[in-house]
Design a protein that fits this description.
alpha+beta; two-stranded parallel ribbon; 2 strands; about 35% helix
């Protein structure tokens, strides 16, 4: 599922805001696909 989400992002994506990131697995996949991107990941839990 996370792989599908990363494929839905435009190839021009340079900044991504992930709300409710949990363990940040999606953020890691995004950075693998777009290594020059800036990801801001926020979660309520410490």
């Amino acid at each position: 599922m996370l792989e599908v989400i990363t494929r839905c992002l435009p190839s021009t994506s340079r900044r991504v805001l992930e709300l409710g990131c949990g363990t940040s697995e999606l953020s890691l996949k995004i950075l693998n696909r777009f290594p020059d991107a800036q990801v801001i990941a926020l979660d309520y839990s410490p």
